[in-house]
Amino acid sequence: MIEFFFDCSSPWTYLAFHNIQPLAKELGAEIIWRPILVGGIFNTVNPSVYAQREKPVPLKARYMKKDLQDWARSAGLAIKMPPTVFPVNSVKAMRGCIWLGKDMVPFATSVFEAYWGGDKDISQDTVLAEVCKKLGIDEQKFFAGISEQAIKDQLKANTEEVVARGGFGSPTIFVNKTDMYFGNDRLPLIREALLRGKASAA
């Protein structure tokens, strides 16, 4: 089993979200999608992210852009870094994922594509309405749903849970509850962990 804690505001999460699905399918692993607010994690346990944004190391920042584009090319994805609006407030989008439940993957995929591929501001209702229209989601029900207190509480609970379990950013991925991995580049290690689990269960 894979638990995938994610926020659509992260480019590395877009890559991992895309790349982990065929991996899980190939190995017969179930993915449990867990929407979070990565800003809440940074505020709580990882404020160094903000310091890096304010005072980036030029050589490291330049390489990070290249590294991101190399990974995007490998995945067949288009990622503009930075987007026009960055960082972006993804709270409504992530509440939308919670509200959609088992049907969240097409929505999350479209939100990722709109923001990272289309350079659209996913904090705006008009952009989320476009995504809903494209997917045949009732817009009025969507916006009513994401304003429900239970949905807000679940997003907060997911965010607090991943921190309590040792997470410090997005994507945070767990294999079989306790084996934690962080980031898109850990997928080869996740593959090995899943294969070990299958071997021990055989």
Automatic annotation (TrEMBL):
Transmembrane segments: none annotated. The active site is at S10. Residues 2-194 form the DSBA-like thioredoxin domain. Pfam families: DSBA. The keyword Isomerase applies. One of its GO terms (biological process) is naphthalene catabolic process. InterPro entries: DSBA-like_thioredoxin_dom, GST_Kappa/NadH, HCCAis_GSTk, NahD-like, Thioredoxin-like_sf. Its EC number is 5.99.1.4. One of its GO terms (molecular function) is glutathione peroxidase activity. Keywords: Isomerase. It catalyses: 2-hydroxychromene-2-carboxylate = (3E)-4-(2-hydroxyphenyl)-2-oxobut-3-enoate. PANTHER family: GLUTATHIONE S-TRANSFERASE KAPPA, GLUTATHIONE S-TRANSFERASE KAPPA 1. Belongs to the GST superfamily. NadH family. This is 2-hydroxychromene-2-carboxylate isomerase. It comes from Bradyrhizobium guangzhouense.
